[in-house]
Amino acid sequence: MRAVQQQLVVSAPVIDNSKQLNAILSILETIASSGTNKDVINALQLLSNRPAIAVFDKNEAARALTPSITKQQSINQSIDNIVNGRRRTYEASN
Questions:
Q1: Which residues on neighbouring strands pair with residue 56, listed in sequence order?
Q2: b or e along 6-28 (b: 16 or more beta carbons within 10 Å of the residue's beta carbon)?
Q3: What is the greatest pairwise CA distance in the chain?
Q4: What are the helix (H) ranges across 1-94?
């Protein structure tokens, strides 16, 4: 369960931001060529404070995490079996 809490799978629709990106690059080039480093840093800070939209797809997260969780559960079960002196079910039937 810790792995589920620690890992996020983000799925976002593909959006064409090329016009906005070009405008931002143009502004940054202008600031960099005529301003100071402080101006560039301030512009970047303003951009970084813009809200970000992310969509969490719980089904995709489950698909991505299931193999890791299953593997860890198997390891934990094997350790528990060894500590408690039990054999695996398939070994006991042989």
A1: 10
A2: eeeeeeeeeeeeeeeeeeeeeeb
A3: 80
A4: 2-6, 18-34, 37-48, 58-83, 89-92
Q: What's residue 32's pLDDT?
A: 72
Q: What is the pTM of this model?
A: 0.36
Angle at 54 between CA 49 and CA 55, to 5 degrees: 165
Residue pair 65/56 in contact by the 8 Å Cβ criterion: no
Q: Can you list the residues of the chain whose pLDDT is less than 70? A: 1-14, 35-36, 87-94
Q: What is the DSSP letter of 85?
A: T
Mean pLDDT rounded to a whole number for the chain: 75
